[in-house]
């Protein structure tokens, strides 16, 4: 570890803290966004805080996002930042347990499975899962049995967690996983998930029962996926639309196929990558829709406009039609702006890295150096909530994305409040670029590959629910809980609902 002194002009300022090793863990863990806004006022866009002995250098704003997500392979490493959390959960030889060029090949294999052809098949399957859930889950008895005017209540997070795993397994994960969900698989999943927490990130090797459970569950789940592949050998599955079928056909550049074990571990990685991110997003979207019945009604009208049949029913949608629903798209986009499931993106510095002068320049000819051994961290959740960038930054307002004057004019401030001068936030501010202030799916080489799948899954889940239910909230929107890996709504997060008239 290099000693960081706030007096050294070459290293970023260190956030003041009372307890040496502990550092700013409490403030960061409790509310990272608020903590970073306060630090920015005091120290500027680049500063270092201490997190249980680790030196975390934060780079804020669109340029900070670029600094972290656009970092050079020779200078920063995602695998060194994440592997001790992910490898015990996903398993060996995949994702951050392999060199970056292998991860890039593995992402290409997964992209092959996330094809338009497969998405076309998924839309109907997801709708079917949601319908079945509404008809059968005890939370929705009022939906099935009650009088049309009777109001029931469901827990948004619990229901969205269940629906997310049901729909992901029915589509991506494959029918064997879907069939096992009611049995052993759910327990394995819970034990594995119990090992994917901030505690595991901070302390990889504690002698705790939850760590041992995680390891047992990883092995059992890995064996389960290997067994599915063995069982499939007797039949032709090459035309199946799930990821197991897609990965079975893939080869590394040197001609070697993926092993069954690697495929098993990629499947676990995908399960973990998509589960909390999508279920949190669906929960936040429903909570906001329940809070804004005017938007929920407009969403329902969008469905009626596109899908009503002569006999007054709503027909099934296709993948192409789903992609062409502007309000639905805006609801998801805006929910991911206000509630990005992943608030911090972290890399480990493996070679001293200079901070570009335009991002932080402590003197005329100086830039900071972030020393090897530090971590660098960008916070898309902050740039997505920055009043310097967004009008009414804290307001959930899906309409900002569909204003006829164009996204840039509506969603972003294009002028400086104080001077009235035009502000340029860089190329395509909402683009996929590393310098965008809007990065719920990250950017650069480690950018998410699950975005399109998430949009299909969220789009069908939300529209099917809005077709069936009217919703309202008796309480304010819950505050975010930052104590989990993924930012979830605090409990209770109950939504009141009743059936829509047309059923
Ligand atoms: C990477 C967010 C769903 C698979 C990422 C990253 C973010 C993210 C922020 C970048 C992490 C970093 O740079 O450190 C989300 C959100 C989702 C979502 C908000 C849903 C709303 C999914 C799904 C899958 C998936 C459904 C799989 C089907 C991946 C993979 C990576 C990734 C493989 C690449 C990791 C890397 O290259 O290092 N995701 N994700 N994600 N995500 Fe997602």
Automatic annotation (TrEMBL):
<keyword id="KW-0503">Monooxygenase</keyword>
<dbReference type="GO" id="GO:0020037">
    <property type="term" value="F:heme binding"/>
</dbReference>
<dbReference type="GO" id="GO:0032259">
    <property type="term" value="P:methylation"/>
</dbReference>
<keyword id="KW-0408">Iron</keyword>
<dbReference type="GO" id="GO:0008168">
    <property type="term" value="F:methyltransferase activity"/>
</dbReference>
<feature type="binding site" description="axial binding residue">
    <location>
        <position position="448"/>
    </location>
    <ligand>
        <name>heme</name>
    </ligand>
</feature>
<dbReference type="GO" id="GO:0016020">
    <property type="term" value="C:membrane"/>
</dbReference>
<protein>
    <submittedName>
        <fullName>Lanosterol 14-alpha-demethylase</fullName>
    </submittedName>
</protein>
<dbReference type="InterPro" id="IPR002403">
    <property type="entry name" value="Cyt_P450_E_grp-IV"/>
</dbReference>
<dbReference type="InterPro" id="IPR017972">
    <property type="entry name" value="Cyt_P450_CS"/>
</dbReference>
<dbReference type="InterPro" id="IPR001128">
    <property type="entry name" value="Cyt_P450"/>
</dbReference>
<dbReference type="GO" id="GO:0004497">
    <property type="term" value="F:monooxygenase activity"/>
</dbReference>
<dbReference type="GO" id="GO:0005506">
    <property type="term" value="F:iron ion binding"/>
</dbReference>
<dbReference type="InterPro" id="IPR036396">
    <property type="entry name" value="Cyt_P450_sf"/>
</dbReference>
<comment type="similarity">
    <text>Belongs to the cytochrome P450 family.</text>
</comment>
<keyword id="KW-0472">Membrane</keyword>
<dbReference type="GO" id="GO:0016705">
    <property type="term" value="F:oxidoreductase activity, acting on paired donors, with incorporation or reduction of molecular oxygen"/>
</dbReference>
<keyword id="KW-0812">Transmembrane</keyword>
<keyword id="KW-0479">Metal-binding</keyword>
<keyword id="KW-0808">Transferase</keyword>
<keyword id="KW-0489">Methyltransferase</keyword>
<keyword id="KW-0349">Heme</keyword>
<dbReference type="InterPro" id="IPR050529">
    <property type="entry name" value="CYP450_sterol_14alpha_dmase"/>
</dbReference>
<keyword id="KW-1133">Transmembrane helix</keyword>
<keyword id="KW-0560">Oxidoreductase</keyword>
<dbReference type="Pfam" id="PF00067">
    <property type="entry name" value="p450"/>
</dbReference>
């Amino acid at each position: 570890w290099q000693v960081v002194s706030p007096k050294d002009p070459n290293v970023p300022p260190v956030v003041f803290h009372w307890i040496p090793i502990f550092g700013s863990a409490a403030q960061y863990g409790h509310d990272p966004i608020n903590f970073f806004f306060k630090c920015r006022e005091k120290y500027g866009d680049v500063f270092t805080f201490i997190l249980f002995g680790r030196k975390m250098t934060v780079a804020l704003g669109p340029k900070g996002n670029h600094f972290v997500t656009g970092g050079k392979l020779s200078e920063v490493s995602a695998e060194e930042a994440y592997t001790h959390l992910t490898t015990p959960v996903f398993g060996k030889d995949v994702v951050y347990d392999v060199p970056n060029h292998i991860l890039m090949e593995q992402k290409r294999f997964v992209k092959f499975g996330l094809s338009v052809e497969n998405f076309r098949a998924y839309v109907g399957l997801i709708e079917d899962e949601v319908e079945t859930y509404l008809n059968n889950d005890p939370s929705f008895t009022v939906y099935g049995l009650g009088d049309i005017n009777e109001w029931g209540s469901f827990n948004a997070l619990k229901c969205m967690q269940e629906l997310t795993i049901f729909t992901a397994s029915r589509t991506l994960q494959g029918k064997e996983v879907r069939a096992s969900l009611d049995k052993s698989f759910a327990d394995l999943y819970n034990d594995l998930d119990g090992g994917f927490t901030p505690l595991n990130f901070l302390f990889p090797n504690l002698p705790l029962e939850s760590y041992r459970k995680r390891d047992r569950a990883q092995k059992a789940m890995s064996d389960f996926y290997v067994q599915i592949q063995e069982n499939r050998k007797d039949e032709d599955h090459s035309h199946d639309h799930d990821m197991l079928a897609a990965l079975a056909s893939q080869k590394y550049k040197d001609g070697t196929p993926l092993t069954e074990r690697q495929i098993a571990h990629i499947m676990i990685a995908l399960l973990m990558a998509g589960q909390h991110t999508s279920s949190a997003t669906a929960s936040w979207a429903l909570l906001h829709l329940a809070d804004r019945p005017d938007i929920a009604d407009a969403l329902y009208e969008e469905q009626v406009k596109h899908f009503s049949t002569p006999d007054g029913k709503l027909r099934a949608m296709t993948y192409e039609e789903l992609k062409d629903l502007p309000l639905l798209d805006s609801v998801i986009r805006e929910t991911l702006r206000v509630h990005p499931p992943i608030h911090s993106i972290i890399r480990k510095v493996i070679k001293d890295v200079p901070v570009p002068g335009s991002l932080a320049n402590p003197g005329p000819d100086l830039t900071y150096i972030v020393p090897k051994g530090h971590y660098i961290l960008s916070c898309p959740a902050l740039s997505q909530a920055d009043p310097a960038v967004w009008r009414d930054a804290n307001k959930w307002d899906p309409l900002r994305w569909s204003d006829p004057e164009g996204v840039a004019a509506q969603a972003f401030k294009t002028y400086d409040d104080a001077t009235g001068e035009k502000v340029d936030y860089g190329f395509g501010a909402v683009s996929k670029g590393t310098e965008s202030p809007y990065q719920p799916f990250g950017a650069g080489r480690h950018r998410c590959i699950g975005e399109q799948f998430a949009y299909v899954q969220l789009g069908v889940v939300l529209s099917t629910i809005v077709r069936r239910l009217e919703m309202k909230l008796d309480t304010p929107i819950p505050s975010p809980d930052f104590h989990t890996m993924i930012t979830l709504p605090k409990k209770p997060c109950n939504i009141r609902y009743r059936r829509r008239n047309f059923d």
